């Protein structure tokens, strides 16, 4: 069996997505997601100019060999652009293999470990009162796990607060939107949100919060401590993780569970965090961390240290990643939770899929492959539209982490 052609499809059905389609001499094709939010064109060029020419004529069944070929062969290792391109190839090849086998992807990974996949949704509001109401709406939809983000008085355009409950889209302008941040105000206000949430709804649901890399290690420790009485499922990206050592300080001071890794590309970004048991959940996902082949490796390392998975699943991860992640989640023994932000109806139409949501859980389909396709004719109707992620500044104008 041989790869005969491969192409990159860029489409913007409400937001930008980059998709790789690999075709074979047996008529079977595979689809992979290569979307890098705000930097899409860099991955398009990487795939078109440097990766696709190497794929033609290769045996699509040699998934591991192709992964090693692209990773070692580039010489320049790791990084979000390279690893997303590798992920797209990897996922498309797993799709082809599963279609050839006539099996849903999770069967090839080792079969079902659970009946359904618990997902968390994003509730947000301009202030505590409206965020509490938003969480209530998620509870009514059957969610077991809900992330809560609130606007903070005196902070302009606080992170995580969208125009409505269901759709949150931070990449909102061709040039980065300027947003504000104030850690002292957050340390004061956010624990009050969780106090109110537990007061209103009790302790039956899992509550999550995202710090989005904003706190120093000591501030993260203070926030973790302040949130302890409200028993969070996790406190995410409490501090930037380039320096994995930083988490030691946070860990020594709080029992609030920690999650990190949506921006990680490889096992090397989380090796020390996992081996030193500094985190509880690893957020690396299919498109971000080199595809199914590499995420499996990360999950296996994590399982040795009782670290569970919590795959990133924001709207910038296309339905192709969502579908593939659900197969992964159905198999992975050390599963924790899956993030699920709904795509717009236009996106769902461009990417026909067989996964479904019911009462806080998702299930992958039983079709051969990962179960997600792309309608190329429809995709062509939505041309690329430049959109970048925001930036954040402190009140005195200092650049901060968005
Ligand atoms: C999350 C995230 C995202 C990111 C987004 C950036 O936890 O879901 O932090 O919303 O900000 O994926 O592109
Ligand atoms: Mg996050």
From TrEMBL:
It catalyses: D-mannonate = 2-dehydro-3-deoxy-D-gluconate + H2O. Pathway: Carbohydrate metabolism; pentose and glucuronate interconversion. Its cofactor is Mg(2+). One of its GO terms (biological process) is carbohydrate catabolic process. Gene3D superfamilies: Enolase-like C-terminal domain (3.20.20.120), Enolase-like, N-terminal domain (3.30.390.10). Residues 128-257 form the Mandelate racemase/muconate lactonizing enzyme C-terminal domain. Its EC number is 4.2.1.8. Catalyzes the dehydration of D-mannonate. Has no detectable activity with a panel of 70 other acid sugars (in vitro). This is D-mannonate dehydratase. It comes from Alteraurantiacibacter buctensis.
């Amino acid at each position: 069996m041989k790869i005969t052609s491969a192409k990159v499809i860029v489409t913007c059905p409400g937001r930008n997505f980059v998709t790789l389609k690999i075709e074979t001499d047996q008529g079977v094709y595979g689809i992979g997601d290569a979307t890098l939010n705000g930097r899409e064109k860099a991955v398009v060029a990487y795939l078109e100019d440097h990766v696709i020419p190497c794929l033609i004529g290769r045996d699509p069944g040699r998934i591991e060999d192709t992964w090693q070929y692209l990773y070692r062969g580039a010489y320049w290792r790791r990084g979000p652009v390279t690893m997303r391109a590798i992920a797209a190839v990897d996922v498309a090849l797993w799709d082809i293999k599963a279609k050839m086998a006539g099996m849903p992807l999770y069967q090839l990974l080792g079969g079902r470990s659970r009946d359904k996949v618990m997902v968390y949704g994003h509730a947000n509001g301009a202030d505590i009162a409206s965020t509490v109401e938003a969480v209530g709406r998620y509870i009514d939809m059957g969610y077991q796990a809900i992330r809560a983000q609130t606007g903070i008085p005196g902070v302009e355009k606080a992170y995580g607060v969208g125009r409505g409950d269901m759709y949150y889209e931070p990449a909102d302008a061709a040039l980065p939107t300027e947003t504000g941040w104030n850690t002292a105000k957050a340390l004061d206000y956010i624990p009050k949100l969780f106090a109110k949430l537990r007061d209103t709804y009790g302790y039956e649901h899992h509550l999550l919060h995202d710090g989005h890399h904003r706190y120093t290690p000591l501030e993260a420790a203070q926030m973790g401590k302040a949130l302890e009485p409200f028993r969070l499922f996790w406190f995410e990206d409490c501090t930037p993780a380039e320096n994995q050592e930083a988490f030691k300080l946070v860990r020594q001071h709080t029992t609030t569970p920690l999650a990190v890794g949506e921006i990680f590309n490889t096992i090397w970004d989380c090796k020390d965090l996992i081996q030193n048991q500094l985190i509880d959940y690893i957020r690396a996902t299919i498109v971000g961390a080199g595809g199914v082949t590499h995420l499996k490796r990360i999950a296996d390392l994590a399982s040795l240290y009782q670290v569970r998975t919590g795959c990133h699943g924001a709207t910038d991860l296309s339905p192709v990643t969502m579908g593939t992640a659900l197969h992964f989640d159905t198999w992975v023994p050390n599963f924790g939770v899956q993030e699920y932000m709904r795509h717009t109806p236009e996106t769902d139409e461009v990417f026909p899929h067989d996964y479904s949501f019911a009462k806080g859980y998702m299930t992958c389909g039983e079709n051969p492959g990962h179960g997600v396709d792309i309608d190329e004719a429809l995709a062509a109707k939505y041309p690329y539209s430049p959109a970048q992620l925001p930036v954040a500044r402190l009140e005195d104008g200092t650049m901060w982490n968005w």
